[in-house]
Amino acid sequence: MIDKIVVRCEADANEVVSEDAGELGIVGDEAQDFSDSSLTSAVGVDTICVFPKNPKRSVPAGEETELLVGIQNEGESSLNVLAIRASLHFSFDHSMLVQNLTVQEFYNATVPLSSQATFPYIFAVSKYLQPGLFDLVGTIIYEIDQHPYQSVFYNGTIEVVEAGGFLSVESIFLVTIGVALLGFLGLWAYGQIQNLSKKTKRAPKVEVGTKTTEANMDEWLQGTAYAQSLSSKSKKKK
């Protein structure tokens, strides 16, 4: 049977407690040097990582992000968790280090044999970091019988996004371009309508059938008093 232990960091006293309310450890304020890359993982120790509030693994630049590190001890003796640390690398070249993240240190955080424990890890990438994809490497350091070991609990891609604000710089840029294009199209359509209106006003008027109408009118008035009066007037003018 495997016992499960959940470790939590309290904001005030920085205490690490288990589900049975027993004290497991204290998060240290002063981090020691745990950058020894020659350390290997111990036999029978497995780790897992979960982003509880961020399943898409989008990390806002400059803001704190929490993940949970699970460790299972199926070795030959109990282990003591010393610290959790992480680093950020370029995704296109993993050998290039971008940033060393927080080292979170623990004291008296013992995981007995045939037990599981979960430790919180809070980190923040630089607020000046450009949005994009990066590789996150997380390591948990522990000791068994006073021999130090380390296990990589996460080695994968995260997405760094801009913190705060509803719209990113890229979104504002695209919206600005869209508004400018709409304004340009509106001006172009207005100019086309004005040109069409001017052409319509300049078109000459064509009179159709005027002479024919006058000739028909004369024939229709022949023999009437009006026609006789017109005839007499034309004779007097002569």
Overview of the molecule:
This protein has 238 residues and is α+β, with helices and mostly antiparallel strands. 25% of the residues lie in helices and 39% in strands. It contains 3 helices and 13 strands; from the N terminus they run E-E-E-E-E-E-E-E-E-E-E-E-E-H-H-H. The strands form 2 sheets. Strands 2, 3, 4, 6, 8, 9, 10, 12 and 13 form a 9-stranded mixed β-sheet that branches. It has a 4-stranded mixed β-sheet with strand order 1-11-7-5, with no helix packed on it. It is rod-shaped and about 145 Å long. The model is unreliable at 8-29 (pLDDT under 50).
Could you write a compact summary of the structure shown?
This protein has 238 residues and is of the alpha+beta class.
Mean pLDDT over all positions: 77
In terms of structural class, how would the helical and strand content be classed?
alpha+beta
What is the tally of beta strands? 13
Largest sheet: 9 strands, mixed
